[in-house]
Amino acid sequence: AAERHIVIALCAEQGFVGGFNSRILKAVAERIAEEGAERTDLLLVGSRGLAVADEMGLAVAWSAPMAEHVDQVTSLANRLADTLFERLQGGAVTQVTTIHARPSSDSAPAGLVEQTLMPFDFSRFPPANRANPPLIHLPAPDLLARLADEYVFAELCEALTLSCAAENEARMRAMVAARDNVEERLQDLTAQARLLRQEQITEEVIELAAGSTA
Hints:
Layout lengths: L3 E7 L9 H16 L4 E6 L1 H10 L5 E3 L8 H16 L4 E10 L8 E8 L21 H74 L1
Parallel strand pairs: 1-2, 1-4, 2-3
Antiparallel strand pairs: 4-5
Helix pairs in contact: 3-4
């Protein structure tokens, strides 16, 4: 079977987030273009993102609503992991990538994260120098399989949590921008009203002056 690439895109569930979904799905579209649409499966989380993906003509193989609160992340991560492992059973998938937003921090502005879940990046966890091997109670293959499951689950939880925080931040920024626009528009209208009132008063004074001299 031909090698396949799974792309997991985490988008917004609610609206009023500006270009949040478009930025994520633009990165997704670029990755799909590189790999080839015929060998890429897109798993998409977030109802608003699903609508944008449809507008962009992206084929979605599976979708689910995004967690609206942090306490919903665990159950969503479990569901997403189950779906992912089901698709891995065929043996054709050789790469899994997550693409999502991250919120701003003290050290970096808000941006996008593209994380490779598979193949496993062993450089992230350099081997520890131990005098004695660790004591294990499971056969090594079983232990590795369980550790892989836990690793994928933890990575998905982290990605979903960051995405939730980034969505909320994007919404807050959009609301602040909207408020600023309203305040600016109000100031403009107030200035126009004062100008019109001043012109009206001037016209009334001129009429009164003309009447008194008639």
